[in-house]
Amino acid sequence: EALKQAFSLYPIPRFHHLFAHAKALIRVHGPYTTYAGTTVFTRAPIPRSTKTSKPPSLKTIATSFAAAQDSATSAQPAGPSKEDLQVFNLLWSTTIDILEQILEDGELGHEVFGWGVYGLAAGYIGEPESPLFVPRKSQAFESLKRRLRAALTALPSLSGAAGRTELERVKAGLGMMPAERIGQLVKARKETHICANLLMQRFRSEGWGGIRWGHVIAVVERWLQLLGKEDAVDVVE
């Protein structure tokens, strides 16, 4: 029923519908895992009561999405767990569709985009079996990640109250930033742009599969909120 309803929705409301349903499944049947030594997706042995259980923790959600990701391309035995996995898989494909659209639209500010990319980088696991994943390339990735964080924390509007106050006073014409500070901000914005885009190019070139699903879903959800698109409810005619 959840899948049938999802197909009647446009991507953004479909994302929210499937994400809510996935979390509801995790609340009752999570954490999802795989059988030892296999990629067979399975519910927790004992269902949790929805009347007494709290919403699933971030760890439980992350564990469940990781299990779904590891099982996504494997044949699964018929049963409830396979049906649940179909929900997770559709949520993932919908998430990527929206992510690509957000990137194409280019409406995110430098810092919002940069912190989102940093969030994706935090969930990066790479492709160990790929010949491209070698120590030198791994070191380059970690270097970009460190540079991105350093640049983001140097920007004022999202990195602290003092920085925001400083920027707001300048915008209101109540003060002036020293030339040195302006130079630092210009450098930080440039560094954010370069590092974030290089990391994003890497993620896209690998088909997004090198990032844990939970991180991508969380970043897309946050970006939709900041773009004011979290409440879309359009239905496909």
Could you describe the 3D structure shown?
- The protein contains nine helices and two strands; from the N terminus they run H-H-E-E-H-H-H-H-H-H-H.
- 63% of the residues lie in helices and 2% in strands.
- It has a two-stranded antiparallel ribbon with strand order 1-2.
- Helix 2 (11-29) packs antiparallel against helix 4 (80-105), helix 4 packs across helix 9 (213-226) and helix 5 (110-122) packs antiparallel against helix 9 (213-226).
- The protein has one domain.
- It is globular and about 65 Å long.
- By secondary structure, the chain is mainly α.
The total strand number stands at 2
Instruction: Please give the order of strands in the largest beta sheet.
Output: 1-2
Mean pLDDT across the residues is 86
Which ranges are low-confidence, i.e. pLDDT below 50, for 5 or more consecutive residues? 158-163, 233-237
Query: Helix proportion of residues, in percent?
Result: 55-70%
Q: Tell me the distance between the termini.
A: 18 Å
* Count of folded domains: 1
Shape: globular
Biggest sheet, in brief?
Answer: 2 strands, antiparallel
Q: Report the structural category.
A: mainly alpha
Total helical elements? 9
What fraction of residues sit in β-strands? under 5%
N-to-C series of helices and strands:
HHEEHHHHHHH
Rg measurement, Å: 21 Å
